[in-house]
Amino acid sequence: MAHRLLSASRVNARIAFIFTLSLSCTYLFYNLIIYRSAVMRNQGFEGKQCPPSKSAGGKKLLGKLENCASLEPSSAAQRGSSHLQRNSPAAAGGQWTDMNSRNMSVAQKYGNKKLPTALIVGVKKGGTRAVLEFIRIHPDVRALGTEPHFFDRNYDRGLDWYRGLMPRTLDSQITLEKTPSYFVTREAPRRISRMSHETKLIVVVRNPVTRAISDYTQTLSKKPDIPSFEDLAFTNRSLGLVDTSWNAIRIGMYILHLENWLQYFRLSQMHFVSGERLITDPAGEMGRVQDFLGLKRIITDKHFYFNRTKGFPCLKKPESSSQPRCLGKSKGRTHVQIERDTIEQLQEFYRPFNIKFYETVGQDFKWD
């Protein structure tokens, strides 16, 4: 009897052991399945794509790079920008486009609307649109596509209205906008300094004579009945008296406008881009812009090619597009023909202003 009881006890112990072992294996297997599913979901978040979005400014000029990639979990969002910067190769084509698109979509979902920390403030017909479109392919820059004209025309709407126009950005990204008329607006530097004394300012400058002709050409395309360039540029051409009240002439007197800005900002807060070098060496000029903004040099010569028809550089074709990206039809239009004596008279007029401008900014733009 005792032997039978002992045998039954051993059998029960074995059954209990087998049951416990089976239960433990089931629990372990169940946890492995849950872990694998979670990993696959996260990979799905990173790889999924949505249709391209359209913005107010994108159609007008260079089609935007914003392909809406589906968004990573919020814990990854704050490190998204630095991750993209570390892994963004300085190469043209699909890789930089896809990375920039993903970074934009992460910012749109998890970022905040902030006041800009950098502004392209001028000058009209200097190359500001090119600088904006080139810099906005950088994954750590988010730029407003249209010109808000806040500090010259819409200041009474208030900073909250202005902030509301801005794209969403992550903490590691720069918010930027462009309005070229700020540079020649007397109240603009004071108003911008009230927003922030630390704002970084980019000024794209160009030979003032060429800039004036380009300005006139643009106006003529909209108002074909305006007087000739020579009639507008001079109060007395035979005496060589230039009409400095004409805006196309006055904008090019850069030193007069700069003196106003230097009452509110240090020269070190301003970066001057050469409109001429932006055409002949876009990568070099954009490299210096990236340095000024404290960005890693991601935009390089591999992003550009020279469009001989338009006469200026374009961005190489992204993988997601069938065509390269160039500025709109209004950019690169043929200038009206101006008599050589008029050009020489204007060069003579601008020379003292140019020299003082070179001395102040510490850079010779070689316009003379």
From TrEMBL:
It is found in: Endomembrane system; Golgi apparatus membrane. Residues 76-88 have a biased composition (Polar residues). PANTHER family: HEPARAN SULFATE GLUCOSAMINE 3-O-SULFOTRANSFERASE 2, HEPARAN SULFATE SULFOTRANSFERASE. The keyword Cytoplasm does not apply. The chain crosses the membrane at residues 15-35. It is a single-pass type II membrane protein. Belongs to the sulfotransferase 1 family. This is Sulfotransferase. Residues 117-351 form the Sulfotransferase domain. GO terms for molecular function: [heparan sulfate]-glucosamine 3-sulfotransferase activity. It comes from the Eukaryota. Residues 76-98 are annotated as: Disordered. GO terms for cellular component: Golgi membrane. 3'-phosphoadenylyl sulfate binds at residues 125-129, 206, 214, 331-335. The keyword Isomerase does not apply.
